[in-house]
Amino acid sequence: MKKKDIKDILHNVKEGDLEVDQALDNLRDLPFEDLGYAKVDHHRGLRNGYPEVIYCEDKTTDEIKGIVEKMMERNQNILATRADEEVYEALKELTDDLEYYERARIVVIQKEEIELSESKILVMTGGTSDLEVAEEAAITAEVMGNTVERAYDVGVAGIHRLLAQKDKMAEANVIITVAGMEGALASVVSGLTDKPIVAVPTSVGYGANFDGLAALLAMLNSCASGLGVVNIDNGFGAAYLADSIINQIEAARE
């Protein structure tokens, strides 16, 4: 439930279009609804600006379906991350209003129209091998209502590919850089622009990459300014942080 939903309920009560008991019924599951195996946080949209997102790994399909069913009662858009084909097939039994983004491993159930921001997020990758994490970030950001551009396979091994993206970097309000190996992309991009950078280390790389630890430490130790780092392979977290920044920019425009 979003702030707008609460305002609509209060307005309808004030205008006499909604009985008090009906309003209470609409609010009965705030702040959360206990399903036994999960406590669905219906209050999150009010607190954080976006409803709870379902992380599917290590949940059974029945648990995921149960959570989705309760969230669908709110007639809101639903984002399920780290979802495989089995989860997608299970959720198709509940609704036809869904789309599966296989590369991003995301299922989106869209009940409300998504209005895109005037501000823009640019998602960049070092290589094609980083696309799974990058698409998780890009799709998440789009579902949250952001205008997203992509610039993939522009790593520092061919620096001319990155320099060719100057116009896109200049137009963006926030840049998400996704890279494995030594994770140099974030530092170089941050040195080329005054935009806030959200850096995502990936587990892509050879043995001494240590499943992304080398890239994570390189990004944390960057000498470039204006750089924030999320956890390894956390495209979702990068998108959420970028969305928070964009929301502040959009609010300042109003």
TrEMBL record:
Residues 119-251 form the PurE domain. InterPro entries: P2CMN_synthase_LarB, PurE_dom. SMART domains: AIRC. GO terms for molecular function: hydrolase activity. Signal peptide: none annotated. It holds the Pfam family AIRC. GO terms for biological process: 'de novo' IMP biosynthetic process. Transmembrane segments: none annotated. NCBIfam families: LarB (NF033503). This is NCAIR mutase (PurE)-related protein.
